[in-house]
Every structure is written in C-alpha cells, then in structure tokens.
Amino acid sequence: MPMPMPPNAFLFVGALLFTLGVVGVLTRRNPLVVFMSIELMLNAVNLTFMTFASALHSVDGWIFVFLVLTVAAAEVVIGLAIIVSIFRSRQDIDVDDLNTLKG
Amino acid sequence: MLAGQIAFYVLAAAAVGSAIGVITFRNAVYSALSLIVNLFCLALFFLMLNAIFIATVQVLVYAGAIMVLFLFVVTMLAPENDDSLPATRDRLGVWQQTAAIGLGIILAGAIGYLVLAQASISPAAVATGSQDLAQQISQLGNTEAFGQALFHGFLFPFEVTSVILIAAIVGSVVLGRRTSSREGE
Predict the structure, then answer these.
(1) Number of A–B residue contacts, CB under 8 Å
(2) Buried b / exposed e across A41-80, counting CB within 10 Å, b at 16+?
(3) Which residues does chain B have within 8 Å of residue A83's beta carbon, measured at their own beta carbons?
(4) Do B165 and A83 count as a contact with CB atoms less than 8 A apart?
(5) Distance between CA atoms of B89 and B87, rounded to whole angstroms?
(6) Could you give the 3-state DSSP secondary structure of residue B72?
(7) Fold type of domain A31-92
(8) What's the CATH architecture for B1-79?
(9) Per-domain residue ranges for chain B?
(10) How many helices (H) and strands (E) does chain A have?
(11) How far is B27 from chain A (nearest CA, A)?
C-alpha cells in the first residue's frame, strides 16, 4: 500500500504537534501537563521518524521509534515518581515554585 | 487514493485538535484524556505508513501503560486543583504566555516553510535504502522485518534499553518508598 499523501504532509503534521508540545511546556505550570506536553513532542518526533522510514524504504526509523517508546516509558515512570515525592513533601505542585535548587 | 487522503486530513485535524486540547484544558484529567486521543491518532498515522507492529506497540505501551500511569497520578494528586491561571499568578503569566505562543508560531512557521516549500527527499537517499523494506515486508511480513532489523542490526541498543528499564524500575521503587528518608535521618 503506497503512502496516501506525500511525506511532507506527514512531516508538517509532526512539526505542528512538536510546536504545540513546546508551547505547552512553556505556558503550563502544572508539572503533569508539562510532562504530557513532553510526550506530545516525543510523539511528534516519532511521526517524523516513521515518515522518513517509509519515504526512504528503510526499517531503521522503526527501530528508533521503538527505542524512543522505551525511553519515554522509563522517563514517565521516573518523572511521575519524582512529582509524587515532591507533592508528598510540599503539598503543592507548581513548576514556578520549585526553585529550591537555584543557586 | 482519495479515501486515503480524506483519512489523512481527518486524522491530522483530530491529532492537532487533541494536541491543542492537551495544552489548553485547565483540568489535568481532561488533558490526559485528550492526550490519549492524540496518541491513538498517531497510531493510526503509523498504520497509514504501513507499520502495523509499531502502531500496535504504540497503542499498547502509550494508551495501555503510560496513560494509565498518568491518569492514576493525576487523579491521585490534585483532582480539584485545576491550575487556575488568572487568580494567583497574573504577574508573570501574561507576558510569559504571549512570548511562548509567539515563539511557537515562529517555530511552526519556520518548520512548516522548510517542510512544505523547500525540503524534498533526495533520490540518492532513497536509493541507499534500496527498496529493502518493501521487499522484506513482502517476503517476511511486517513484524518479522522489524524483528530481523532489531535483533541483527541493532542488538546492542536493544540490550542497552533493558538496562534503562531496570534503572527506571529501581529508581521508581526508591523514589516511591515513603519511609526511606525518615529512617535515614
């Protein structure tokens, strides 16, 4: 089955999703939503990888997507554990208030 | 071909709309649900790109595992705290948001211009791929082609992945222990 659209259309959707993820990271204060925006960016990059894999007739992009999925899962587990432990100690999660490490 | 194009436009609209939902909903639970829709749209994109195995893994890992974790933590932490922007923090919020959205528009415009107007995949790059994937898929099938590449060409990164997963498991257990810090002090 050939690609229904030229690769650039898929790449454009990926770029749009990545930009929305960037805007989400920059504007939101809830660390959980910031995390979701990071997931959005990872998925946009995954879409780009898949598009190039399909356009170049190479399976390497699939491998990258697979590895990105694994790293994203590990990152989510650790990040959510950190958020939970911060919430336990401060009872308040706001990214702008978490500046205790600031020198 | 026309049906494929219609499907692409519908999927693209759904993906972008749900992504906007993720970053605009005040309630984090709605953001998480919107993200599930977005991930599902991406799985359908992968299906459209002939990657059946990756689409399945996307649904299983993201929608099945990661989003369950997200929803669990979101509902556990602060279900009533819905990130009210105007009440507490309008000192920095307005210009930060304007700057972020302006920068985002510039980024989207730049990438979109590059993607749509100028960039095209050179035939030489396609030639190095040498129709390998299509041939393998037709001979072996989708999952088998992926497995051949994973376990022959990329065995070392695959093994490193298992180390990452072990580190994540150990780290989450350590971070999740409630009493560990008090015993240490």
Answers:
(1) 240
(2) bbbbbbbbbbbbbbbbbbbbbbbbbbbebbebbbbbbbbb
(3) 73, 77
(4) no
(5) 6
(6) helix
(7) Helix Hairpins (1.10.287)
(8) Up-down Bundle (1.20)
(9) 1-79
(10) 3, 0
(11) 9
Return d(Cα A86, Cα A98) in angstroms, integer: 9
Q: Global pTM? A: 0.83
Could you report the per-residue pLDDT of B52-109, keeping only the tens digit for each?
Answer: 889 999 999 888 888 888 888 888 876 555 554 444 454 556 777 788 888 888 888 8
User: Pseudo-torsion of CA B76, B173, A63, B125, nearest 10°?
Assistant: 80
Residue B134: the pLDDT is 61
- Chain A: nearest CA to B112, how far in angstroms? 6
**CA-atom Rg of chain B in angstroms:** 22
Q: What's residue B92's pLDDT? A: 58
CA distance A76 to A40: 12
pLDDT tens profile B103-159: 888 888 887 787 777 666 666 666 555 556 666 666 666 788 788 888 888 889 899
The pLDDT of residue B87: 44
User: Which chain B residues touch A75 with a CB distance below 8 Å?
Assistant: 168
Domain coordinates of chain A in residue numbers?
31-92
Tell which residue, B42, B130, B82, has the closest CA to residue A14: B42
